[in-house]
Model the fold of this input.
Amino acid sequence: MKLFAIVLLLLVSVIGVSQNENQKQEKVIETIEVFFAGFHAQDSALIKSVVFKDAIMQSISRNKEAIVTLTTSSFEDFLNQIIAIPETDTFFESLISYSVQIDGNMANVWTPYEFWYNDQKSHCGVNSFQLIKDNETWKIIYIIDTRRQCKE
Done:
């Protein structure tokens, strides 16, 4: 009977830890989802609501000569580019999945994606978001993505 009670206590503890970890991951994912809701609505205020001051934006791609390049842009430049997309154009970044890692006040989210522009698949890649927990709220501090032609 003692063994049964110990096993039951351990099982309940493991389930509690797992549920707590899932809740933490959901809070991080919510931050990414708010970011993309603002992105798709071209709403800079909504995007800024989940971004920490002085966020860093980078992208890895290949230029016309097939040389790998790393492009860095300011967060303000990123916002201006999104806002400048004409209303007549459509765009959507479809996130394929989320892989979340958390250690205390730091989180990383890896999201493979497909980017659609005017109903055509433009490119694919992966986003890597780094987040900081600031006063119990997750904020994005760094985004780097890859951009490549999609394999069908």
Remarks:
- The CA atoms of residues 30 and 150 lie 27 Å apart.
- The chain is about 35% helix and 45% strand.
